[in-house]
Amino acid sequence: MINGFHHATFITRNLSQARNFYERVLGLRPDINRPVMSFDGVWYDVAPRQQIHLMLLPNPEEGVVRPTHGGRDRHVALSVNNLATLIQQLEQAGIVYSLSQSGRRALFCRDPDDNALEFIEDVV
Fold first, then answer.
1. Which of 7, 12, 24, 59 has the most CB atoms in a 10 Å sphere around its CB?
2. pLDDT at position 62, please?
3. C-alpha count within 13 angstroms, C-beta hemisphere, residue 112
4. Range 9-33 average pLDDT
5. What pLDDT digit, counting tens, does each position of 51-100 carry?
6. Do the domain assignments include residue 61?
7. Do residue 77 and residue 35 come from a single domain?
8. Is 63 within the bounds of a domain?
9. Per the domain annotation, does 114 fall within a domain?
10. Does 81 share its domain with 49?
11. Per the structure, how many domains does the chain have?
12. Can you give the residue range of the structural domain that contains 99?
C-alpha cells in the first residue's frame, strides 16, 4: 500500500539559519517549483520524489529538552555516499554530531532548530 517516502517536514523559527545549515553544510538546493503557501518556507529535493520541507512557524514544543543523542529522539534518516566527507563538513561548520551507537557507518546531528537527523553511509 505504501509506495515510498515523499517528504519530511521540520518547523524552523529562523529560516535563514536553517537554510544555511541545509544548503551550505548539507549541500541541498531549494526546489523553486513548489507552490507558495500561507507561511514562509523552503523545499529541498534529496532524491527523486523525496523532499525535506522547512516551515517558518512557531514551534509548539518550544522549551522541550531533546535527548542528547539524536538516535534516542524522533529523527529522519538520510543516506549519504561518504560519511567521512559529511563529518568534515559538520566539523568545519562547528556542528556537534555523535556516531551511531550500533557500530554501523552512521551519525546523528541536529539542525539549528534541534531537529534530529541521521546520516547512514551507503555501502556499495
1. 12
2. 86
3. 18
4. 95
5. 999 999 998 888 899 998 899 999 999 999 999 999 999 999 999 999 99
6. no
7. no
8. no
9. yes
10. no
11. 2
12. 70-121
3-state SS of the chain?
CCCCCCEEEEEECCHHHHHHHHHHHCCCCECCCCCCCCCCEEEEEEECCEEEEEEECCCCCCCCCCCCCHHHCCEEEEEECCHHHHHHHHHHCCCCEEECCCCCCEEEEECCCCCEEEEEECCC
Any idea what the Cα angle at residue 18 is, between residues 13 and 19, rounded to 5°?
A: 130
**pTM of the model as a whole:** 0.91
| CA–CA distance, 27 with 11 (Å, rounded to integer) | 19
Contact 19, 54 (CB under 8 A): yes
16 and 48 fall within a common domain: yes
Q: For all residues of the chain together, what is the average pLDDT? A: 93
Residue carrying C-alpha cell 548539507: 26
Q: Is residue 42 assigned to a domain?
A: yes
